[in-house]
Design brief:
alpha/beta, 5-stranded parallel beta sheet, 13% strand
């Protein structure tokens, strides 16, 4: 039976729309590999698998209904994808935790679970044109709910007083692909986009907050001009040159000061190259782990020793794996081909060290464009 990677999440339509950037990223990264991808928006209590399968559950809703112990007893490798900012480390009984922010990964390094940085990647939005050039007096749009009492509401009110209610607005009623395309054509294409943290602080001390990469996945894929509060430093590093960062008090000045228009086509191209789905999973070490679980699930191979003869025995050459920390070979094939080689046991380990940013990784491994967004319905998360 083919090895499966199962992607599950709550069946709530709004959440399915919010989580679609992750579904799209994983689907694109695994296309062309021998794995069978199974995507289910359903209550997870019925989840089952076979030895060597992977099970990934997205988000906090219904995570307590996942039969983690049963899946692990069946030999399934389990992953929880965390979609919300939280302090501390996960109490979910999965083998791994994937996160959209380095804050979680670095805070929980050394815990019993494996933590990986797997942000939502570049998308192709069928039927949408790239953004128009954003000038100094273009409308400013917060793509998300502005009135969270956790802090974003107060920060939004501050900016509304600074910029004026006629210039600043928020969009938080887009919950399907058709509504997204309509909003983008009527408003989004010609706006400068603002992102505020859910736990925004009026004092401007926001550098411990994770960056809203779900929202950025769709905006940057369309070449939008985005201004954000300062975020967790390593998150900012990943989006350097794609997003303009400042304190809450600096944002009005950043929006009003004259600046050379940025090419939407260039922003989309750079984001697509840096955040290609295969680059994300390869740098996170997911391909290598999939190979190992696949190999562990296979029956032991037949002995390679010949029937008789010392000369014949001398002709048998053992396979030699590359050291785990070895840098990728310059003559290595593209990521999807490398994975195909890995799962058939003809190539050594792939590993990208944690010090390499996605920008550095994309320079070393240019990637093809992701599949159309219409294949899996995608958008933003609050």
């Amino acid at each position: 039976m083919a090895q499966q990677l199962q992607l599950w999440h709550s069946p709530a339509p709004a959440l399915a729309f919010m989580y679609a950037p992750v579904v799209s990223t994983v689907s694109a990264a695994l296309s062309g590999t021998p794995l069978t991808l199974v995507h289910r928006a359903a209550r997870p209590h019925t989840a089952r698998g076979a030895r060597g399968d992977w099970f990934v559950f997205i988000g906090p809703e219904l995570v307590d209904k996942v039969p983690w112990a049963r899946l692990r007893a069946q030999g399934v490798h389990t992953v929880w994808y965390s979609t919300e900012p939280f302090d501390g480390c996960s109490s979910v009984a999965s083998d791994e935790v994937w996160s959209y922010t380095w804050r979680t990964v670095e805070r929980c390094r050394g815990s019993l679970q494996m933590y990986r940085y797997v942000p939502p990647g570049a998308l192709r939005v069928a039927g949408a044109e790239v953004a128009a050039a954003a000038g100094g007096d273009t409308p400013v749009v917060l793509f998300g709910f502005p009135h969270f009492k956790s802090g974003r509401g107060a920060c939004y009110a501050f900016l509304e007083r600074s910029l004026g209610a006629r210039r600043l607005s928020a969009t938080f009623s887009v919950w399907n692909n058709s509504a997204l395309l309509l909003w983008w054509e009527e408003v989004g294409r010609r706006a400068t986009h603002l992102t505020l943290h859910k736990h925004c602080r009026l004092d401007g001390h926001s550098s411990t907050q994770p960056l809203e990469s779900f929202r950025l996945s769709i905006l940057l894929s369309l070449g939008a001009t985005v201004i954000s509060e300062h975020s967790y430093p390593r998150d900012e590093q990943e989006y350097a040159g794609l997003v303009t960062f400042g304190t809450l008090q600096e944002i009005p000045r950043l929006l009003n000061e004259p600046k050379a228009p940025r090419s939407a086509v260039d922003i989309a191209r750079r984001f697509r190259r840096r955040f290609s789905p295969t680059a994300i999973l390869e740098r996170a070490g997911v391909y290598d782990s999939l190979r190992r679980t696949r190999a562990a699930a296979q029956p032991p191979p037949e002995p390679l020793l010949p029937a008789h003869g010392a000369a014949a025995q001398g002709s048998v050459r053992p396979l030699r794996a590359e050291p785990r920390d070895a840098p990728p070979r310059r003559d290595a094939p593209p990521a999807a081909s490398r994975y195909a080689l890995l799962v058939h046991g003809r190539m050594g380990s792939l590993h990208a060290g944690p010090s390499m940013s996605l920008a550095q990784h994309s320079e070393a491994h240019p990637q093809a464009s992701p599949p159309p967004l219409s294949r899996v319905r995608s958008s933003l998360a609050a």
